[in-house]
Specification:
Layout lengths: L3 E5 L2 H10 L1 E8 L2 E8 L2 E7 L4 H14 L4 E10 L9 E9 L22 E2 L2 H14 L4 E8 L7 H11 L3 E3 L2 H10 L4 E9 L5 H29 L2
Parallel strand pairs: 1-4, 1-5, 5-10, 6-8, 8-9
Antiparallel strand pairs: 2-3, 3-4, 5-9, 6-7, 6-10
Helix pairs in contact: 1-6, 2-5, 3-6
């Protein structure tokens, strides 16, 4: 049976999902609260992991080991790296990589983790299809699929943004997705990352972000609920 693990970094990213759950129990582990119940008829666990790659990876592994989830979704907000992506638009991951992992001096590509057989961690094709269908239903005509780049930095200047684009060719940047993707890849779990654009990841980011954070996060939550319903119907 499918059991969906849903990870968001911040309260605003998970509150709507928690409120929609039924038959709820809460488990405290590793400083996080895991909300275990039913979402749109599907067994699911919703958790706020906190900001950054270490928090995200730790959370994803707990979901695998302690809650035995079969699929992972990372939902939340991101900064745009693509001129065609405006605030409020949605991005579904084809794959995810790090923009701040750099051991090029030893012959690795930017973002490549030594010992891994990929630079970017591929999302599951079925999960991508569900996410795109759900996103188009919520915000038709404003959905793109592509690469998501993650790093432990809030990108808010044009120079850094340009370097990330050159190094990753990603559509958007955030702070957790690639770490969750790596954990899913190592545990052989299907995953997808869903992001709503909250800012332009440039010199306007600090102004845009507070204004559009809640709107973008709510939109992602709507899509995630729809995905859960699709997965339930496919059982």
């Amino acid at each position: 049976m499918t059991k969906l693990g849903i990870i968001g970094a911040m309260t605003v990213e998970v509150e709507t999902l928690k409120d929609a759950m039924e038959h709820l129990s809460v488990t405290h582990k590793a400083g996080m609260e895991f909300y275990d119940g039913m979402l749109e008829g599907l067994p699911a666990v919703v958790v706020q992991c906190g900001v950054g790659k270490v928090n995200a990876a730790m959370c994803a592994q707990v979901l695998c080991d302690c809650f035995h989830v079969t699929h992972l979704v990372n939902t939340g907000i991101a900064g745009s790296l693509c001129a065609q992506l405006d605030i409020g638009d949605l991005v579904v991951s084809e794959d995810a990589m790090y923009h701040d992992f750099d051991v090029q001096r030893f012959g690795y590509a930017i973002g490549e983790v030594p010992g891994m057989d990929v630079v970017a961690f591929p999302a599951n094709r079925d999960m991508i299809a569900y996410a795109v269908a759900a996103a188009e239903a919520v915000h038709p005509g404003h959905v793109k699929t592509g690469r998501i780049a993650s790093g432990d930095v809030f990108v808010a200047d044009a120079e850094r943004k340009a370097r990330i684009i050159a190094g990753t060719k990603a559509l958007c940047t955030e702070m957790e997705g690639a770490a969750i993707a790596q954990v899913a890849y190592r545990n052989e779990l299907p995953f997808v990352i869903l992001r709503a654009i909250s800012d332009k990841a440039d010199d306007s980011a600090e102004m845009d972000y507070p204004t559009f954070e809640a709107q973008a996060a709510y939109r992602c939550a709507q899509v995630t609920r729809s995905m859960a319903g699709m997965l339930c119907a496919a059982e």
